Amino acid sequence: LMKTKGFGYVSDDIPELAIAVEPGYQGQGIGTKLLRSLLDEAERAGFRGVSLSCRTNNSAANLHKRLGFKEVPDSVITNRTGGTSVSMVHFFKSPVVSHNDCRNDIG
C-alpha cells in the first residue's frame, strides 16, 4: 500500500482511485465503463468504499455523482493549477465492518 495520502484520501481502509480518459476518447462511455469496473472489483475485494479527488470544473464530476459518489464535507481545496478540487467517496451497500470512521461515513 502507498504510504502517501492523496488529495482524495478519506480513510486508511478506503482506497483512493485516480483515473483519466485521454481527451480524444472522452464522451464515448469509456470512463463510465472503467469506473463501473473498478467499483465492481473494489466491492468484490471487500472494501467498504472508494474515494477520489476531482476538480470542481471537471465534467467527470457528473459521472462520479451518477455512480453514487458523494462530496466529502469540508474537503474543497485549492489545487496545483489554482482551481478547486473536492474529495468524493462511494460506499458500497454491503460494507465491510471497519474501525475507522471515514469522516462520519458521508453519504
Q: How are the SSEs ordered, and which strands pair?
A:
Elements: H1 30-44, E1 49-55, H2 60-66, E2 70-71, E3 77-78, E4 84-91, H3 102-105
Antiparallel strand pairs: 1-4, 2-4, 3-4
What characteristics describe this protein?
107 residues; alpha+beta; 24% helix
Number of continuous helical runs: 3
Query: How far is it from the N-terminal to the C-terminal residue, by CA?
Result: 25 Å
Strand fraction: 15-25%
- List low-confidence stretches: 96-101
What would the average pLDDT be, to the nearest integer?
A: 86
User: Radius of gyration in whole Å, from Cα?
Assistant: 14 Å
Task: Tell me how many strands there are.
Answer: 4
Order of helices and strands: HEHEEEH
What is the overall silhouette? globular
Helical proportion, percent range: 10-25%
Structural class, judged by helices and strands? alpha+beta
Largest sheet: 4 strands, antiparallel
